[in-house]
Fold this sequence. Notes:
- Helix content is about 15%, strand content about 30%.
- The protein is α+β, with helices and mostly antiparallel strands.
- The chain has one domain (about 10-85).
- It has a 5-stranded antiparallel β-sheet with strand order 3-2-1-5-4, with helices on one face.
- Strand 1 (about 15-20) and strand 2 (about 25-30) form a beta hairpin.
Amino acid sequence: MKNSNNISLRPYTAKYLVLLHTQAHPRALLFNGQHDFLAELDDDGFVVDDLVRAGTPCRPPRDLPLPEVVRDPMGPNGQLECYALG
């Protein structure tokens, strides 16, 4: 994919969606194929639901920097879901 300046945006394409159900609040995180953190999505419902439907459930890769990104403790009832995108 290229923008109007003919610069490739492919390195910033999300490869993994990680849903965290923490004690504080649910979070939706995007990571690229090199396991770099890209963004946290606001849970408006539509975007996250569409990504979940389009994704394939998977185990989170070990190299995802979850401890650096996640500051809220998961707690005993916390859950983590991972989806491979595209």
